[in-house]
Amino acid sequence: MPSNYSTRPNKHVDRELFAELVGRAISDTPINDCLYISMGGPQMADHISMYRRNGISKLYSFDLDNDTVNRQIFNAPTSETCCAQHAAAELPGKLDELAERLDAQRFIVWFDYTGNVNRGAQMAEFQTLLQSLGPGDIARISLDASLPPARLMANLRQELREDRISANRVLLQRELGEFHPESLELETLNDMPTYLAKCLEHVCDRAAEMSSVDGISFRPILQTYYVDSAPMFTATVLVQSEQGMPVPPAGFGYLSEGWGSIEFLEVPELTAREKFFLDRLLDRTEAEYNSQLGYSIAREAQSMRQWLSFKKYHRFLPQFQHIEMK
């Protein structure tokens, strides 16, 4: 999977939406009290975004690969950035030490996973993370939203292999285990975002039950689905006290209204000139912008969806500018 998020517009929009949400959510907290943690990848794109957009200078990144960690250290946006080699499963056990060492009072944590065969284990790791957080903290998870690999069907009974819907249901139940929602009918790939959201609702309910903090709850505040190198689903949750504090940030136009509220991102791939031109046509219909532009920005079947997505998320599209470094 390519790591340059700026050339993957849906991924870029998703990350920028999250960064803006975080900025609004922590506006009542001294910025030096906040610590941002994620699997930064070699380019540290989301850490750089958190620092530039929100001023969070206390940043922590981790990865299992030593070379990736060394690249993170080189690309770190601040002198306070810490990079370490370990797995996501180890992070919850390190949070108290990180809070003390970095003098942090509020955590923002993103587990950005890939792969469509270990999502049950990934959700279990996310549950453990949630149980380690307190009111005011923010947790985010990204999951591959693909159906199970077709090769796994070879191990199913003949009658199941002949019915792909039933086969996928069985394979997902095996993969997700205790998080699998029995009541949800999964028919096509289009149902996967709803399916994963329901699984994460179970994860959050279980984390609340097992947390040492009485009355704690986990409220979804942003959920997205988009197609990148693979279909991806993300969920961002706000940790709230028994009194429902803190409340979600008012005025954020993409705030989730519940687990069934998912933002579908399908922005077009545009040149800088096309984007600047279309920014002036946001009040127009698809037919009107096609007429002024002289061509469609996408295939006919996608054009309307992509135009509506552009109008909704145009502020977050990546910008490109040629530069020379001498």
List the helices and strands and how they pair.
Blueprint: H1 9-25, E1 34-38, H2 45-54, E2 59-63, H3 66-75, E3 82-85, H4 95-102, E4 106-112, H5 119-131, E5 138-144, H6 158-161, H7 164-176, H8 192-210, E6 217-227, E7 231-240, E8 263-265, H9 272-278, H10 286-293, H11 300-313
Parallel strand pairs: 1-2, 1-4, 2-3, 4-5, 6-8
Antiparallel strand pairs: 5-7, 6-7
What would your notes on this structure say?
The chain has about 325 residues and is of the alpha/beta class. Helices cover about 40% and strands about 15% of the residues. It has eleven helices and eight strands. A hairpin with a 3-residue loop joins strand 6 and strand 7. The mean pLDDT is about 90.
Short description:
By secondary structure, the chain is of the alpha/beta class. It contains eleven helices and eight strands. 38% of the residues lie in helices and 16% in strands.
Number of helices: 11
| Radius of gyration from the alpha-carbon trace, in angstroms | 21 Å
* Beta-strand percent range: 15-25%
Report the mean per-residue pLDDT as an integer: 91
Roughly what percent helix?
25-40%
Largest sheet: 8 strands, mixed
Low-confidence stretches: none
Order of helices and strands: HEHEHEHEHEHHHEEEHHH
- Quantity of strands, as a count: 8
What structural category do the secondary elements indicate?
alpha/beta
The global form is: globular
Strand order of the largest sheet: 3-2-1-4-5-7-6-8
Termini, distance in Å?
30 Å
